[in-house]
Amino acid sequence: xxxxxxxxxxxxxxxxxxxxxxxxxxxxxxxxxxxxxxxxxxxxxxxxxxxxxxxxxxxxxxxxxxxxxxxxxxxxxxxxxxxxxxxxxxxxxxxxxxxxxxxxxxxxxxxxxxxxxxxxxxxxxxxxxxxxxxxxxxxxxxxxxxxxxxxxxxxxxxxxxxxxxxxxxxxxxxxxxxxxxxxxxxxxxxxxxxxxxxxxxxxxxxxxxxxxxxxxxxxxxxxxxxxxxxxxxxxxxxxxxxxxxxxxxxxxxxxxxxxxxxxxxxxxxxxxxxxxxxxxxxxxxxxxxxxxxxxxxxxxxxxxxxxxxxxxxxxxxxxxxxxxxxxxxxxxxxxxxxxxxxxxxxxxxxxxxxxxxxxxxxxxxxxxxxxxxxxxxxxxxxxxxxxxxxxxxxxxxxxxxxxxxxxxxxxxxxxxxxxxxxxxxxxxxxxxxxxxxxxxxxxxxxxxxxxxxxxxxxxxxxxxxxxxx
Length: 469
Known about the structure:
Layout: H1 14-17, H2 19-24, H3 45-63, H4 65-68, H5 77-81, H6 87-94, H7 113-133, H8 138-167, H9 174-179, H10 182-187, H11 193-208, H12 212-225, H13 233-242, H14 246-274, H15 276-288, H16 296-303, H17 313-333, H18 340-354, H19 363-373, H20 377-402, H21 411-437
Organism: Jiangella asiatica
Protein name: DUF2029 domain-containing protein
Transmembrane segments: 42-63, 143-164, 176-207, 213-241, 253-275, 315-333, 340-358, 381-402, 414-433
């Protein structure tokens, strides 16, 4: 028996699909009936998700007001305890944007080129607004810079929500799981990560719609903003190896990879040629750094001092190779070919687990992938509860470092918060692996499952858009 295509069925009602949502729906009359007729209304699932996105981001912006009121004037204890820290205003003042310097040419910038271009453009807009509305000064300019960045991140978040809702056409309500996320509320304006998350999400939609070149271009642009979107290419290759039409799928992967290389090169080459030292700063910064905040290695160094050498590159590479082999094995040995987002989630989670730094906002990288890979409120709540705990603890730990006379969080407590965060990610990863090995439990797949049965020749050239993401 062949698996029915996801878009052959009607839209999935969350109250009938998710056990936790179904139980909660008893407070409002119970799950939607099996014979209910869902008429089209203006308040579609995507529009509801966008409204929730706007509300969540507005709450996040309000939560930043204790710091915004004084323009993030200093990294003092009050900023950490209020949990309203953001890299944005500090980098405006500390990387020369406030002084009219040009990124990479005039100043070192430890960010990929496309993110640097976004920062430079935002600085120009902020300075124009400051010239018109005032007041003068670098502090006031950094507030304008933060506000412009917050608008851009809000637009990026809206696109992420739409892309998530449209990746699997019969599951438009999945976008709401991104929109209502505590991770989005807390982390949207800490840095520029949502821009790369948007490009990665659009790349996934393009791939599922059988547009490999568009997907590749978006992956290349995403990698030029944050490197992690390049991890999409590995799962694409693994799935091509499992496809009945292996030659055709490998051709699509080759097209996507070529497009990604072209896009990444087109963005990076001008800066690499005209400002080589500035362009290399990002790579040298990440090469030379040691175990940094949030990373698995930082927790190990606290709990077992002296266990790790000063240079941990060999540990990072070795761990990455082990996890890569494990993911490849899962992809090739699973009873049915996994979904793209399942493998991509595992790849990005593995990258974060072995990376030298794991900043609070990196949870945004996993958010749409986790929702698409395992759209279950219980599992997402377990993971994000761990992220919220870590978000609170990390700022209080930094407050302790800046004011040791008034300790709030000890080194050991901070290390345990990192381990809790790791456990939350591993929980989702374990659920995803279980769904891969037992496809009948995957909430995104229809109930009937095909196990290693070759498709008829005429069915091998189906559009990829008909396949689950």
